Amino acid sequence: MALFTSAPESLCLLRLSAIGDCCHAVALVQAIQRQWPQTRITWITGKVEAQLLCQLPDVEIISFDKSAGWQGYRRLWRQLRGRRFDALLHMQAAMRASIASLGIRAKYRLGFERERAKDGQWLFTNLKVTASGEHVADGFMSFGEALGLQKTKPQWSWPCSQQELAQAAQYKDKRPLLLICPAASKAYKNWTAEGYAALADHAHHKGMKVILIGSPARMERELATKIERLTDNINENLVGQTSLPGLMALIQTATLVVAPDTGPAHMATLTGTPVLGLYAHHNPARTGPYHCRDYVVSVYEEALLAETGKTPAELPWRTRVKDEHAMKRITIERVIAQFDRICGDFHLLQEPS
Q1: Which of 23, 116, 231, 241 is deepest in the core (most CB within 10 A)?
Q2: Residue 18, preceding peptide bond in cis (omega within 30° of 0)
Q3: What letter would DSSP give residue 56?
Q4: How distant, in Å, are the alpha carbons of 187, 195, 225, 239 from that of 219?
C-alpha cells in the first residue's frame, strides 16, 4: 500500500556512493519531481558525488565526508538538527550510511528488503521495499512506488551548463568522438592496456577521434600512459584533467563511451550517450549501462561458473566474481565485434562520401 496519496512536504534520500549508483538514483529523484513538483527533496551524498549532483535543479545536496571519521558524522547531524522529513529513503546498504541515518528524523524510514540489505541495514529502517526488476535502477524506482508514485521505468535527463558544454565542444571535430574510460576505481575491474590500444586502432581506422578519460587516481593515469605507449591513435589523454561536471558535458558531446563497470558508463546513461560496457565481476543485468545492456561484452557468467560451478540464477543477487584476472577473459575480437554492432545499430559512424 502506498504511503502517500498526495504529495509529501519533504523527503530525504540517503545515497552516499558510488557515482554510478548515484546516477541510477537520479531517475527516482526526477520521477518524484515530475509527479510531486512541490515536494522538497534533500539528498545526502558523498563529498565527491556532491560535485556532480549539485547540478540537479531544485534538490538540496548535503555533502558527507566519510574520510573525516566521526567528525563527518557529527557535522552531518548538526546540519540536520531540528529538521524532520516525511520519509527517509535509505538507499545504501552499508554500515557507514546506516550510521549516518541515525541523525535523520523521519516518520517513515524505507530500506531494502532482507535479500538486498546487507550490513544490518534492516535494523535502521521501519519499512522494507521489495525491489522490482533485476537492475539496480529498477530497484531504486521501487522506493518511489512504495511512496505512492506511479509505476514507471527509469528516465533520466541531465542539465549540463552551457559553459561546460562549450568547453567540451573544443574536443569535438567532424569525426565521431569515442571516449574510452579504461579504469574503474578498483584495478581488478580494468581490461588490459593492450586491448584498449587495439580498440583505439580499430576505432581510428573507422574514422573516429579517440580520447581517454578518467579520474586523477594514480592507477588510472598509469593505465592511460601505458595505452598511449601501445598506440599512436589516442588523440587526447584527459585522464585526471576534467571536473565531474566537465566530464559529464564531454560525455554528452561524445558519440560513444567504452568503459568497464565504473561511473562514466552510468553518467552516459544520464546524457543518452551509447555505452559499450566491459564486464567480468558483476552481473551486467544488475549493474550494466541501463539502456545498453544488450551491448555489453560480458564474461561474468563464464567466470562465475568457473569459480563456483553455478549460474547467476543459482546464487544471491549481488554475487561477485572474485578472480582478479577475470577481465582477461575478454578478447579484443569480442570487443571489436560488439563495437561494430553498436556503431551500426546507433548509426554512429560517418557515412562514406
Answers
A1: 23
A2: yes
A3: S
A4: 7, 17, 10, 11
For 169-238, what is the HEC assignment?
Answer: HCCCCCCCEEEECCCCCCHHHCCCHHHHHHHHHHHHHCCCEEEECCCCCHHHHHHHHHHHHHCCCCCEEC
Contacts of 33 (CB under 8 A, 6+ apart): 39, 41, 58
Bridge partners of 178, per DSSP, are 210, 256
* Cβ-based neighbour number of residue 247 at 10 Å: 24
CATH of the domain spanning 10-147: 3.40.50.2000
CATH entry, 162-345, from 3.30.565.10, 2.120.10.30, 3.40.50.2000, 1.10.760.10: 3.40.50.2000
The cell numbers describing 207, all together, are 574514422
Instruction: Tell me the H-state helices in the chain.
Output: 19-35, 47-53, 70-80, 95-101, 136-147, 162-169, 193-205, 218-230, 244-253, 263-271, 284-287, 300-308, 332-345
pTM over 0.90: yes
Taking the C-alpha atoms of residue 298 and residue 280, their distance in angstroms, rounded to an integer, is 6
Q: Which sign, positive or negative, has the C-alpha torsion 314, 262, 218, 51?
A: negative
Which ranges in the chain are annotated with CATH 3.40.50.2000?
A: 10-147, 162-345
Rounded mean pLDDT for each run of 10 residues along the chain, 353 residues in total: 94 98 98 98 98 97 96 97 98 96 98 89 95 93 97 96 97 97 97 98 98 97 98 98 98 98 98 98 97 98 98 95 97 98 95 47
Sign of the CA dihedral running 330, 333, 336, 337: negative
d(C-alpha 141, C-alpha 29), whole Å: 9
The angle at the Cα of 173, spanning 169 to 178, to the nearest 5 degrees, equals: 85
* Distance (Å, whole) CA 257 – CA 249: 13
Distance CA 88, CA 85 (A): 7
